[in-house]
Write a structure and sequence with these properties.
3 domains; seven-stranded mixed β-sheet; 32% helix; Rossmann fold; 30 strands; 651 residues; 22% strand; eight-stranded mixed β-sheet; binds 5'-O-[(S)-butoxy(hydroxy)phosphoryl]adenosine; GMP Synthetase, Chain A, domain 3
Length: 651
C-alpha cells in the first residue's frame, strides 16, 4: 500500500539514548514505580468512572456528583449533579491549613519589581475583584475578556471570574486590536479587563489603546477595568472605563463562591487553526480542574516545599493550566514573570532560578533552542543546583536541544518531562512520570492514567510499532474541550469526523517497540517526497544535530520529479555560513536519515517566522520556498521583519 493512501508517515529518526530516573528521585516521587503507574493506567482504561471518581476526592465539592461520566465521546459529561467552584479549590480550601501564609504567587516584573501573594492575600484580592465585577454588572454566565500583561492582577481576575462563574476569555497581550475585537465579538464579552500597558524588552507595550480601538468594533462590551502598570498615558472614557485600584479600594473582601455545576463553563480560549477563524475552545469547571490538578501532581511531582516555575504566558493554555489552576489547586508556590528571557540580558531566567531557588522549571523547546544559541556561558554564571525537575511543552523537542537542556540546565541530574498536550485537551496527556519513566530524548513517552491513545491510518486502523500515522484518543478524559464556543458543528467536524469514534488531535506520531510515543508534528506539515511521507520534524532534528546549526525549519515545495522537494531554512550558531556548509548539511542529513530525505535547497536565515507562542509558521515558509509573492494569513506572526528579510533573499 502506498503511504499516501494509508495516511502513514515514514519514520526516519533513530534515537537510542535512554535516561532512567535516579533511585533517589524515584523513591520520593508522587508516583513511585512502574507497577503503580501500570496499575493506575489499567484501572483508568477498564473503569474510567471508578478511577476518576476516586481521583475527584482530591477536589472539594459543595455537593457530590450523581455520576462520574455520562454519554459517549464526543458528547461526554463529567460529574453531573456535582457542585463545585474552581476559585474555592485554588484558594479557600488552603486557608484552613498552614498554607494560608504560604506564597501562592511569587511575581517578578520585567524591570525587577517583585510581589509575593500568600494564599490569604490572593484570596482577599480575588474576593474583592469578584465584587468589583458584580458591581459592574457581570453575572454568572457572562463572558469577560482579559487582555493583560503577566502581572498578578491577571491571575486575580481569572480566579475572580471563576468565583462568580463568569467564563474568562484571555487574549495574549501581544495580539492586535483586531484580534481583540474578533474574540470579543465571538464570545459576546460584556466586560474587558486590561492594563495601560506591560513591559517587554524594556519597552512599554500599550494595551489600553488597543482595547479602545477594538471597542469601536465590539459593541457587546459595556465596561472596561484598567490596571495601572506602566503609568503611561491612557484615555479613560467616562461610565465605561474604570481604574482597577479605584474600584478595589472600596470593595468588600467577602464574596461567597458560586456553587456551580461541574459542567459550568470555566473559560474560553481562542486557538488559531491553520486556516479560518480562531476556534473558541471551551473548558468546563469540574473536569478541567480535576485534569489539571492530577496532572500537576503526577507530572511535576509537586510537593509542598517546591518552588515551581512555568515560563509560559497565561495568554496560552499552558499558563492557564500550569501557572494558575493546576499549581494553585495543589497549594503550590508558582512563579510568574512578566517579561522577556533576554532582558536585561540572556541570563535573566537563570538569574531568577538562582534567586528564587526554583526546583521545577517548565519551558518551551523554542526557548531552549534560543538558550543554546545564546551559549552556555549565560546559565553557567548562575547556581542552578536547586533544580530537580525540568519540563518542555509546545512542539517536538529535537534530541540535541533535549541533550543540551539535560546537560547544561539539568546538570545531568534532573529528569526531563516532555509533555504532549493541546489547548483542546486542557491538561497533559502524554508525558514521562519523572520518578518512573526512563526518558528518550525527543519522545513524550507514555500516556498518563486515563489517556488511551492510538496511532491509526486514515481509515482508522491501528498501526504497528514504529509505523507513523495519525494520533487519536480512543476514550474520553475529564479535561477535554466540550465544544467550540458558538459552533458545535465545527467542534464535531474538526475533532471527531476524521476518525470514527475517536478524538483526532491533528498530529502525526509513531509508537516504538517500548510503547513510547514520538510526535512527528502537525499532519498538515508532512512532506511528500516521491510518494514518501516524511515528518518535517525528523529532518529538522537531523539538521539540528549538526554542531553549527541552532534551529531549522523544513518545508516542501513543488518539485517536477519528486512531487515535493525539501527546502530547509537554517539558523546557524554563528552569524553566517559559507556556501560549502550547505553541501555539508545536505550530506549530514543524508547520512543521518537516508537519501530520500536529502535536502534540495538550504537557506541560511538569522531568524524564522514564528507565532507568538513560538511555533514555527511553516505555512509561510512554504509560500516563500515556492516563490509565491503573497503569503497567507500573518495575523499571528510574532515579528514581521523576519518575513521581509526572508523575502529579500528570494530576489
Ligand atoms: C500542539 C498543541 C499544550 C500547550 C501548548 C501548545 C504541539 C505540544 C508537544 C510536545 C510535540 C507538541 C502539537 C500539539 N505540541 N506539546 N511535547 N511534543 N508536539 O498548545 O497551541 O494547543 O498546540 O502543539 O502539535 O497538537 P497548542
Amino acid at each position: 500500500m502506498s503511504t499516501e493512501s494509508s495516511g502513514s508517515i515514514e519514520n526516519v529518526l533513530h534515537e537510542g539514548r535512554k535516561f532512567p530516573p535516579s533511585t533517589d528521585f524515584a523513591s520520593n516521587a508522587n508516583i513511585a514505580s512502574e507497577a503503580e503507574y501500570q496499575q493506575m493506567w489499567d484501572r483508568a482504561k477498564d473503569d474510567p468512572a471508578g478511577f476518576w471518581g476516586e481521583m475527584a476526592e482530591n477536589l472539594d465539592w459543595f455537593r457530590p456528583y450523581d455520576s462520574v461520566l455520562d454519554g459517549q465521546m464526543p458528547e461526554t459529561k463529567w460529574f453531573l449533579g456535582g457542585k463545585i467552584n474552581a476559585s474555592y479549590n485554588c484558594l479557600d480550601r488552603h486557608l484552613d491549613s498552614w498554607r494560608k501564609n504560604k506564597a501562592a504567587i511569587i511575581w517578578e516584573g520585567e524591570p525587577g519589581d517583585t510581589r509575593v501573594l500568600r494564599y490569604q492575600d490572593l484570596h482577599r484580592e480575588v474576593c474583592k475583584f469578584a465584587n468589583v465585577l458584580k458591581k459592574l454588572g457581570v453575572e454568572t454566565g457572562d463572558r469577560v475578556t482579559l487582555y493583560m500583561p503577566m502581572i498578578p492582577e491577571l491571575a486575580i481576575a481569572m480566579l475572580a471570574c471563576a468565583r462568580i462563574g463568569a467564563p474568562h476569555s484571555i487574549i495574549f497581550g501581544g495580539f492586535s486590536a483586531d484580534a481583540v475585537a474578533d474574540r470579543n465579538n465571538d464570545a459576546q464579552a460584556k466586560l474587558v479587563v486590561t492594563a495601560d500597558g506591560g513591559w517587554r524588552r524594556g519597552k512599554e507595550v500599550p494595551l489600553k489603546a488597543a482595547v479602545d480601538e477594538s471597542l469601536e468594533r465590539s459593541p457587546s462590551v459595556e465596561k472596561v477595568v484598567v490596571v495601572r502598570r506602566t503609568g503611561q498615558e491612557v484615555d479613560m472614557v467616562p461610565d465605561r472605563d474604570y481604574w482597577w485600584h479605584e474600584m478595589m479600594e472600596g470593595a468588600s473582601a467577602e464574596c461567597e463562591p458560586e456553587q456551580l455545576d461541574a459542567e459550568h463553563p470555566l473559560f474560553i480560549l481562542y486557538t488559531s487553526g491553520s486556516t479560518g477563524k480562531p476556534k473558541g475552545v471551551l473548558h468546563t469547571t469540574g473536569g478541567y480542574l480535576l485534569g489539571t490538578t492530577m496532572t500537576s501532581k503526577w507530572v511535576f511531582d509537586l510537593k509542598d516545599d517546591d518552588t515551581y516555575w512555568c515560563t509560559a504566558d497565561i495568554g496560552w493554555v499552558t499558563g492557564h493550566s500550569y501557572i494558575v489552576y493546576g499549581p494553585l489547586s495543589n497549594g503550590a508556590t508558582t512563579i510568574m514573570y512578566e517579561g522577556a528571557p533576554n532582558w536585561p540580558d540572556e541570563g535573566r531566567f537563570w538569574q531568577m532560578v538562582e534567586k528564587y531557588q526554583v526546583n521545577i522549571f517548565y519551558t518551551a523547546p523554542t526557548a531552549i533552542r534560543a538558550f543554546v544559541k545564546w551559549g552556555d556561558n549565560w546559565p553557567n554564571q548562575y547556581d542552578l543546583s536547586s533544580l530537580r525537575l525540568l519540563g518542555t511543552v509546545g512542539e517536538p523537542i529535537n534530541p540535541e536541544a533535549w541533550m543540551w537542556y539535560h546537560r547544561v540546565i539539568g546538570q545531568e541530574a534532573c529528569p526531563i518531562v516532555d509533555t504532549w498536550w493541546q489547548t483542546e485537551t486542557g491538561g497533559i496527556m502524554l508525558s514521562p512520570l519523572p520518578g518512573v519513566t526512563a526518558t528518550k530524548p525527543g519522545s513524550c513517552t507514555k500516556p498518563l492514567p486515563g489517556v488511551v491513545p492510538d496511532i491509526v491510518t486514515k481509515e482508522g486502523a491501528s498501526l504497528g510499532d514504529n509505523e507513523g500515522g495519525l494520533l487519536v484518543m480512543r476514550q474520553p478524559w475529564p479535561s477535554m474541550l466540550r465544544t467550540l464556543y458558538g459552533d458545535h458543528d465545527r467542534f464535531l467536524q474538526v475533532y471527531f469526523s476524521e476518525i470514527e469514534g475517536c478524538y483526532f488531535a491533528g498530529d502525526g506520531a509513531r509508537r516504538d517497540e517500548d510503547g513510547y510515543y514520538w510526535i512527528m508534528g502537525r499532519v498538515d506539515d508532512v512532506l511528500n517526497v516521491s510518494g514518501h511521507r516524511l515528518s518535517t520534524m525528523e529532518v529538522e532534528s537531523a539538521l539540528v544535530s549538526h554542531e553549527l546549526v541552532a534551529e531549522a525549519a523544513v518545508v516542501g515545495f513543488p518539485h517536477d520529479l519528486k512531487g515535493e522537494g525539501i527546502c530547509c531554512f537554517v539558523t546557524l550558531t554563528s552569524a553566517d555560513g559559507p556556501e560549502e556548509l550547505k553541501d555539508e548539511l545536505k550530506a549530514h542529513v543524508r547520512k543521518q536519515i537516508g537519501a530520500i530525505a536529502t535536502p534540495d535547497m538550504i537557506r541560511f536565515t538569522n531568524a524564522l517566522p514564528k507565532t507568538r507562542s513560538g511555533k514555527i509558521m511553516r505555512r509561510l515558509l512554504r509560500d516563500i520556498a515556492a516563490g509565491r509573492e503573497e503569503v497567507g494569513d500573518t495575523t499571528t506572526l510574532e515579528d514581521f521583519t523576519v518575513l521581509a528579510r526572508l523575502r529579500e533573499h528570494n530576489e
